[in-house]
C-alpha cells in the first residue's frame, strides 16, 4: 500500500538549502514540516517563505545541543516521517599539506553520529504515529568511493550499513526505514565539481516518489546505471568513481 504524504508531521534535517529545501517546499503545503538546522538566518527566512513549517535551531556537530533538540521534539507528539538529509563533505586528501584533522569529527558527527542520535531519540515518537518512515538520504559514494572526500564516503557507507541493520531491528514495529542514493546534485556543496548534475528539485522528486512507493533502497538518476555496472564489473565501477 502506498504511503500517502498528506497530513503528516515530517522532520527534515538540513532543510534550509539544496535538496533539503526542495523537499521542504514540496512537502509543506499538505503536511506539517519541522526543519532542524544550524543557521538562524536561514531558518528564519524559510519559516517566512514556507507555510506549515516549524524551525528548530541545532548544530548537528554539537551533540549536547542535538540532545536538547531531541528532548524538545519528544514533547511535540508523534512524528510520521524522519528525513535525515543533512550532510557535509570536505574534499582535501589525507596526503594534502592543508588537510585539517578537525574536519574528520565534523563530517562523522554530522553525517552519521547525529543520524544515530535522532533515530534512537525519536523512535518512540515514530512508533506512536503507528505507520511511520525513516528516510536516510545517501549517496552513490556510499556504494562506490572516490579518491577525494574519503571521510564523506566512509560516513555514507556506514549509513548504508546502519540502515540495513536497523531494518532488522524495526521489523516488529510500525516504523519502516528507507534510503535514497543520490547522484551528483547541483548544490553549494558540489560547486566546481563534476558535470551532468541533477537539480535539487529533480533529486527531491525522486526521493519522495521512492518514499511514497515504499522503495527500501531508492537509486536515483545515474546511480541506477552505477548499480548495473557494479553488478557486471565491480572493478569498472570503482575506476569510474575513483576520480569523480
Descriptive terms for the model:
16% strand, alpha/beta, Sc_DH/Rdtase_CS, oxidoreductase, NAD(P)-bd_dom_sf, Rossmann fold, SDR family oxidoreductase, SDR_fam, single chain, 244 residues
Structure description:
The chain has helices at about 20-25, 40-50, 65-75, 100-130, 150-170, 200-215, 220-230, 235-240; strands at about 10-15, 30-35, 55, 80-85, 130-140, 175-180, 215-220. With about 240 residues, it is an alpha/beta fold. It has one domain (about 10-240): NAD(P)-binding Rossmann-like Domain (Rossmann fold, 3-Layer(aba) Sandwich), CATH 3.40.50. It has a seven-stranded parallel beta sheet with strand order 3-2-1-4-5-6-7, sandwiched between helices. Strand 1 (about 10-15), helix 1 and strand 2 (about 30-35) form a beta-alpha-beta unit. Helix 3 (about 65-75) packs parallel to helix 4 (about 100-130). The chain is globular and about 45 Å long. The model has no long low-confidence stretch (mean pLDDT about 95).
Amino acid at each position: 500500500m502506498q504511503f500517502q504524504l498528506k497530513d503528516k508531521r515530517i522532520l527534515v534535517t538540513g532543510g534550509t538549502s539544496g535538496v533539503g529545501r526542495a523537499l521542504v517546499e514540496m512537502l509543506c503545503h499538505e503536511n506539517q514540516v519541522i526543519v532542524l538546522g544550524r543557521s538562524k538566518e536561514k531558518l528564519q527566512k524559510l519559516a517566512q517563505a514556507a507555510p506549515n513549517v516549524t524551525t528548530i535551531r541545532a548544530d548537528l556537530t554539537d551533540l549536547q545541543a542535538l540532545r536538547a533538540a531531541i528532548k524538545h521534539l519528544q514533547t511535540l507528539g508523534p512524528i510520521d516521517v524522519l528525513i535525515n538529509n543533512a550532510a557535509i563533505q570536505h574534499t582535501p586528501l589525507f596526503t594534502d599539506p592543508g588537510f585539517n584533522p578537525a574536519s574528520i569529527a565534523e563530517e562523522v558527527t554530522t553525517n552519521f553520529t547525529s543520524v544515530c542520535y535522532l533515530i534512537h531519540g525519536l523512535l518512540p515518537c515514530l512508533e506512536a504515529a503507528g505507520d511511520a518512515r525513516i528516510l536516510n538520504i545517501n549517496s552513490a559514494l556510499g556504494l562506490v568511493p572516490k579518491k577525494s572526500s574519503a571521510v564523506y564516503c566512509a560516513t555514507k557507507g556506514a549509513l548504508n550499513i546502519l540502515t540495513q541493520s536497523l531494518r532488522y531491528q524495526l521489523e516488529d514495529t510500525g516504523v519502516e526505514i528507507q534510503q535514497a542514493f543520490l547522484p551528483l546534485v547541483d548544490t553549494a556543496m558540489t560547486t566546481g565539481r563534476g558535470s551532468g548534475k541533477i537539480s535539487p528539485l529533480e533529486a527531491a522528486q525522486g526521493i519522495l516518489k521512492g518514499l511514497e512507493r515504499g522503495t527500501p533502497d531508492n537509486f536515483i538518476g545515474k546511480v541506477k546505471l552505477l548499480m548495473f555496472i557494479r553488478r557486471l564489473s565491480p572493478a569498472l565501477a570503482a575506476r569510474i568513481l575513483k576520480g569523480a
